[in-house]
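Appendix B, example 12.
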Amino acid sequence: AFVSGFRLSNIAAKINEYTGQNLIGESAVARKYDLFKRSDNYPFYLDFMVPSHTISSCDLSNYDYYHHVDDESERMDFDFMSELIEALVPAIGTMANTKTKEIMLYGE
């Protein structure tokens, strides 16, 4: 899996630290197509300068049906999605409950 806007903050490193796994990385395809700027949450980054990343495993190169008429639920890998979500739980809990600001935009 990867995080959109990987180079904008330390969120991927923190997720990997909190989960004890190399769970989140960078997608060269997402960087090439600048998927962070194409996301629905990009305006939150622009207006509020808060990390507004998306965690994804689909970077347009590994799923032929992304935004396609044949993109139906039976094509989705629910086992993988469940495993990824379960693996992310420690990171989400830590980020939500930390007393200090741990997720930083680079340049802050």
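The CA atoms of residues 5 and 31 lie 8 Å apart. The first strand starts at residue 2 and ends at 3.
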